[in-house]
Design a protein that fits this description.
This protein is of the alpha+beta class and 151 residues long. The chain has 4 helices and 5 strands. Strands 1-2-3-5-4 form a 5-stranded mixed beta barrel.
Length: 151
């Protein structure tokens, strides 16, 4: 503990800037966004230590509090599920077929069968329908097309 005390006393606020630089460089080497917030917290503590004479234990406490607060703030406001898209069905290939008329190629029995769209055969579910009947795609259940009778 004496080593840490001497190091912080000797270098002061510049130690926080060095730590901030190290953490931000480490962020570029490690995938994900993990060290950026800790690097920013170290930079804030460095500025704080230059502006106000604070003892090193309080600097460490400030670093810990700012780090935790920034991580929780980012988790709250930068969630992946909060991002909106102008193409919400982009990666749901089957969703593009909703509303399209298709032909049953394997009779739908007990709610399961197959339909043809272009040169591809898709699994389908819906009411019992004989082979060769034309039906309309009304929805998607994973990779299975939900079909119903034509209106």
């Amino acid at each position: 503990m004496q080593f840490v005390s001497n190091l912080i006393t000797q270098f002061g606020a510049w130690l926080w800037f060095a730590l901030a630089s190290l953490l931000i460089v480490l962020e570029t080497l490690v995938p994900g966004v993990h060290f950026l917030w800790f690097g920013m917290a170290a930079g804030v503590v460095g500025v704080l230590a230059l502006a106000v004479p604070i003892s090193w234990p309080w600097q460490i406490i400030a670093f810990a509090l700012i780090s935790v607060a920034s991580v929780f703030w980012v988790r709250r406001y930068a969630r992946a599920d909060a991002a909106s898209s102008d193409e919400p069905e982009l990666n749901v290939r089957a969703a593009q077929y909703i509303g399209r008329n298709v032909e049953v190629v394997d009779a739908i029995r007990n709610g399961r069968g197959k339909v043809r769209i272009g040169d591809t055969v898709w699994a389908a579910e819906g009411g019992d329908t004989p082979q060769g009947t034309e039906v309309r795609v009304t929805g998607v259940n994973g990779t299975v097309l939900v079909v119903g009778p034509l209106p």
